[in-house]
Design a protein that fits this description.
CATH superfamily of the largest domain: Dipeptide-binding Protein, Domain 3
Helix content: 25-40%
Number of strands: 21
Number of domains: 3
Largest sheet: 5 strands, antiparallel
CATH architecture of the largest domain: Roll
Length: 549
């Protein structure tokens, strides 16, 4: 009881500490990791973990059957081991018997009970009931819900054995299960809190829910967490404090005043103040904090609508492959990364699949490098420019945050003979019109949901035409579809990776997209933070973090 009151007191101090210069983790000798979420958090329900802000918080509160390490290798979590049978269609997970849910009023006497396989059964069943959610779509697409599996696709064979049946082999299934959607939740919490579960989460994770206000979310140490670091029970921290300051300049100033232990995202910092053009900290800041960067499974791109059956495509010059290829050759990706992103990111000169995935191979997948003469040659081949018909004006649709890079791209395209106008749209308008095939030329990005190139290549599969899927280009290629379907069931990693590379080369040749750069994880971290690592999923893991006093 005394320890509980002490941590609660720290949380109250946390709520009062905003704007003070004294680091809150010095109070009472407790260690509190503090960071800010400019975009806010909408829910702490794993089923709603569909954006980075939610995912980071959910990852501290919940666990799934498996987890990824920083190399994107699948490791045990609540499942201590598993077997795969029937040519990749049946998975049997053997669960740990020392995992307990957080203490909460939803349980008898407020004491968290032991997790069993039935909890995963109820979790998966609940996801199916949430039709329309991304998590439900994954299960509906992958699981065998026939009479053979009692129309479920999963079962709790006993208290410590959970079985999943797939409709057909899917080699990346374990990577899919590492997503926060599939974390275990107790049915008692759903019954008690119902629609409020997202604001009153109960999980098994290293931290447990304490306070959520308009200004701050506070999570405190789970004293009964099941994972250890050597012989010491995790987590090392006493609490996590997440602030919701919406102004990035204010948040950055607070980080500089050491009121946050970390600030994340290239767009969240004053780049001119702290970075040189090589993406390193400048001399004046090298000893003040630590810069962490690493590959990120995120490709920023320009997309083309290429379905000439659509009215707005029939008269567009973008319906010609040569024009799309010319735009690819006309853009100096390395220059954009160096001068507009201060070296943060990697020019996407070798396909759509980003660095950080094992199938990425710049020697095999040939993308586009800067070649304005080739661009002019292709424009002429398409029948435009000198000796041909005049090039119509092409509209590029973007959102405000992409304005500087778009202006640079506009100039590069005009240098080879294109006529470009830039339309700046509200985020909601941009998303809606791209999804409904109303924009011929647009800026977007793709972040990997799970650690397999299939996730990136899926956006070019013809059965994923928007608005029902992520093929915003309405790209169709018979050879691509055939190879893609083969890759979906290929169990041999080497063979599957070679197929991914063939698929990426097809996309590059047909050019429904202009890959601009592979993004990088970007974090500034205070010098007293230890054990905070990065990974290509940009997943925040705090259970091994320590703060030096």
């Amino acid at each position: 009881m005394i320890k509980h009151i002490s941590i609660f007191s720290i949380c109250i101090l946390l709520l009062a500490a905003c704007g003070q210069n004294k680091p809150v983790n010095e109070y009472d000798g407790k260690t509190v990791f503090r960071y800010n979420e400019i975009g806010g958090i909408t829910s702490l329900d794993p089923a709603a973990a569909n954006k980075t802000e939610n995912i980071w918080a959910v990852n501290q509160l919940f666990n799934g059957l498996v987890q990824l390490n920083d190399k994107l290798e699948v490791l045990p979590c609540i499942a201590k081991s598993w077997e795969i049978y029937d040519d990749g269609m049946e998975y049997t997970f053997h669960l740990r018997t020392d995992v307990f849910f957080h203490d909460d009023a939803c349980f008898e006497n407020g004491k968290g009970r032991k997790l069993t396989a039935q909890d995963f059964y109820h979790t998966f069943y609940r996801l199916f009931e949430m039709s329309g959610e991304q998590s439900s779509k994954y299960l509906a697409k992958l699981l065998d819900r026939t009479e053979r599996t009692n129309f479920m696709g999963f079962e709790a064979a006993d208290d410590s054995t959970f079985k999943i049946y797939l409709a057909k082999p899917f080699p990346a299934f374990l990577e899919v299960l590492s997503m926060q959607f599939f974390c275990a939740i107790p049915h008692e919490a759903i019954e008690l809190y119902a629609e409020d579960f997202g604001r009153h989460p109960v999980g098994t994770g290293p931290f447990k829910f304490k306070i959520w206000s308009e200004q701050k979310l506070v999570l405190t140490k789970n004293e009964n967490y099941f994972e250890y670091d050597s012989d010491k029970r995790l987590p090392h921290l006493d609490a996590v404090s997440i602030s919701f300051i919406k102004d990035k300049e204010t948040a950055f100033t607070n980080f500089m005043k050491k009121e946050f232990d970390m600030i994340s995202g290239f767009e969240s910092v004053n780049k001119d103040l702290i970075l040189d053009k090589n993406g390193d900290l400048n001399e004046g800041h090298k000893n003040l904090f630590v810069l962490q960067t690493s590959p990120y499974l995120k490709t920023d791109y320009l997309g083309f609508l290429v379905d000439d059956k659509l009215k707005n495509v029939k008269d567009s010059p973008l319906r010609y492959k040569e024009v799309r290829q010319a735009i690819n050759y006309a853009i100096d990706r390395d220059k954009i990364v160096t001068y507009l992103r201060y070296g943060i990111g990697i020019g996407a000169n070798s396909g759509f699949v980003p660095e950080g995935l094992p199938s990425h191979n710049k020697n095999i997948v040939k993308g586009y490098t800067f070649n304005p003469d080739k661009a002019r040659e292709l424009i002429a081949k398409a029948g435009y420019g000198q000796g041909g018909k005049p090039m119509p004006v092409i509209e590029l649709n973007i959102t405000t945050q992409f304005k500087e890079i778009s202006e640079n791209i506009k100039k590069q395209l005009e240098d080879v003979g294109f006529k470009i106008t830039i339309n700046i749209n509200p985020m909601a308008t941009q998303s809606e019109k791209i999804a409904t095939a109303q924009f011929n030329f647009f800026r977007k990005s793709w972040v990997g949901d799970y650690a397999d190139a299939q996730n990136f290549l899926s956006i070019f599969y013809s059965k994923n035409f928007s608005p029902n899927g992520p093929n915003y280009f309405h790209f169709y290629n018979e050879e691509f579809d055939k190879l893609y379907e083969q890759a979906l069931t290929e169990q041999n990693d080497s063979v599957r990776y070679a197929t991914y590379q063939r698929l990426d080369n097809i996309v590059m040749d047909e050019a429904p997209v202009v890959p601009l750069y592979y993004d990088e994880v970007f974090r500034l971290v205070q010098t007293n933070v230890e054990g905070l690592t990065t990974n290509p999923m940009n997943l925040l893991n705090l259970k091994r973090v320590m703060l030096k006093q």
